[in-house]
Amino acid sequence: WGRAAADRGTMDHRAIRPRRVSTGTVTIAARKSNADKKGKKKRVEDNEGDRNEVLQMFAQLFDVMSQCRENLLAGATARAAAIICIQPLDTMKTKLQASTFTRRNVSARALRATLKTGASPFAGVLAALFGQIPYGAFTFAAYEVYKRKLAEKKPDWNERARVILAACLGDLTGSIWLVPWEGVKQRVQVGVSKNSVSSVSLTAKNMQFYSGFFSHILRDLPFRAIQLALYEECRKVYSREVAKGRELDTKDSFVVGAAAGTVTAFLTTPLDVIRTRVMAQRFGVGSSYKGIADAVQHLIKSEGAGALMKGVWPRVLAVAPSTAIFFFVYER
Question: Which residues touch 40 (CB under 8 Å, ≥6 apart)?
């Protein structure tokens, strides 16, 4: 070909110039290319495996809900009754926590004025029912799935540690449903919205369904961990001092659960105050806090450290029955 080109007088030196090829370079490049292909294939397989595992967990979640539907239905009925009964206490707690009075100016008159302002004692009860009843079912079913998975993956872990972690993960899963409704409820309770429907509309308009999600998790995960640890200790004491060694039934679990819930509610009140301040604030120009840290700093600076315990007694009285119901269903 080169000679033919030379005869035509259009010699192309690039055509006849020998190409220098380094076999080592080609080999390394080929190996790198193969490694990249294998790595990409492995990542794809891992992603598919993760997706399949997630889908499998969702299938197990709904399977548990199907198997336990009678217990869940009984728990949902009891939870609905408890929500309606304790809603005035919850509204009182929310109003107290959202108020800005300090220890220096607090009085019976100031407290009465705070409780009379805003919505009625049953404000936000529809949002509470829509949020809490499915949340209870999702949390219980997710807890069972996570507990099984942890038993398979981490059989060498302490059983109590697996139970606490599974319960916390169950709460985290259920919170995806609960948080939007809690925000809707609390904004009605403090008078930002007139009712649950207008609160949903306001939340949707501002795209703030998960406003306060992290403050909610900051309260609920420690609450669940402390609650379960206390429940186990209370069971031991109750079995030794009250039941005198006999096997505890579901009624005993109700009593022990109420005791554990009372102590846990008291200890986690500061976290609940911060959650209320972040969730119940107005949107837009009226927003008071930039985040959790800003809420804590502003609260202590302007109202004192004692403000972190606002609404503690209504909270204790409201939480104890719901905790008792949780352990009643849990033990069954």
Answer: none
**Cβ count within 10 A of residue 151:** 14
282: CB partners within 8 A, 6+ apart: 192, 288
pTM: 0.76
**Residue type (1 letter), 1:** W
Q: Which of 126, 157, 146, 141 is nearest to 53 (CA)?
A: 146
∠27-31-35 over CA atoms, to 5°? 170
As a whole number of angstroms, the distance between CA 292 and CA 113 comes to 28
Q: Which residue has the tokens 């949902």?
A: 76
pLDDT average, residue stretch 165-181:
92
Q: Is it the case that residue 61 has pLDDT exceeding 90?
A: no
Residue for token pair 């206490």: 89
What is the tens place of the pLDDT at every residue in 74-99?
Answer: 767 878 888 888 898 898 898 888 88
| pLDDT tens profile 98-129 | 887 765 555 555 566 556 666 688 888 999 99
Q: Report CA-CA distances (Å) from 74 to 7, 78, 91, 129, 318.
A: 99, 6, 25, 15, 20
Helix (H, G, I), strand (E, B) or coil at 268: coil
